[in-house]
Amino acid sequence: MLRILTGTIFCFSLILFFSVYISPEFFPYAGLLTLLIPPLIIINILILILLTLAKRRLALLPLIALIFGWKFVGVTLQFNPRPENPQGLSVLSYNVHLLRYTKIGEDHNTVTKNIIKWLKDNPSDIKCFQEFYQDFTTPSQNAIKAIGTDSGYEYSYQEIVGNPTKRSYGMVIFSKHPIINEGRVFDTKSNNGVIFADIKVDKDTIRIYNAHLESMSISSEGLSNLDGIKENYRETLGKLKRGQLVRASQIEILKEHMSNSPYANILVGDFNDVPYSYTYFSLRKIMENAFENAGRGFGFTYNKVLFFLRIDNIFYDDILQVVRFKTHREVDYSDHYPISATFDWEKPLRKIPQDE
């Protein structure tokens, strides 16, 4: 019985550990199963300890499983040192929920005022926002003016829905440094997309990608109790499958675009996917992750019922070096927490020679 149980857990562990490298086109429900990876790691550790104490050769199976799955520990939990006053290029990413995320008893105008003030006062060199709402018709809610032009930032705003001269929402990149080129990689004409800006910093140029990948469109409240899960499980499974497939195609478009970038890339945003996913590991193959290399704790970024999710990230080309990463859990103006990273800016960052 012990052999069967240990062997079954071993086989299931290996399948899940390698499923993150398989496109959802071939493994459409992997996104649900891979959420079991953290408890599987713990189970394998416990089995290894028990079988080792019992001096059973069967302990080799959980040991092998842990060797293949150990990478998931680093994407889950980190203990990197956190310097107090890091020097370099600082980048902020924040899904701002249309600048009007209200809780019970709150007025959305007050919330908008508070979040705009926080975004304006944040000293980051580059600020990237998803679900950004812009109102050119109301001076007190003209976020681009308050955060950007009035604060000395250049900006690249790409609206997705609405009137570009009145009210709209989309994605924006603010920069203290000159923006010499900008554009969009794609958008869905609903609420998602990827934009980029080439930013000249001293004698070098960096390309910043601001991403908001396809959402599952699943109500977290509906998943907060057993009755809600039973009632909506078919619909939920369908949304999970669709979300994974769309994000997989979006990732391929994004990777191709980044491969043609003449500059070092920094990719930030709301990826709507956990670290145990094809989305995350597709990017991890070609880029470094700021949380893994400079973060602390679990780095959870979701500010609702499913609080244990880290779906916002900062990736970067390995020519760069991150010196600090932070999840700003003290800032609760949205259903996401802001994240920021500081990069060392002492060395040249060119991917190809440029004219001075």
UniProtKB/TrEMBL annotation:
Pfam families: Exo_endo_phos. It comes from Belliella alkalica. Its cofactor is Mn(2+); Mg(2+). Gene3D superfamilies: Endonuclease/exonuclease/phosphatase (3.60.10.10). GO terms for molecular function: endonuclease activity. It comes from the Bacteria. The keyword Acyltransferase does not apply. Residues 93-336 form the Endonuclease/exonuclease/phosphatase domain. Keywords: DNA damage, DNA repair, Endonuclease, Hydrolase, Magnesium, Membrane, Metal-binding, Nuclease, Transmembrane, Transmembrane helix. CDD domains: EEP-2. InterPro entries: Endo/exonu/phosph_ase_sf, Endo/exonuclease/phosphatase, TDP2-like. This is Endonuclease/exonuclease/phosphatase family protein. SUPFAM superfamilies: DNase I-like. The chain crosses the membrane at residues 5-23, 29-51, 58-79.
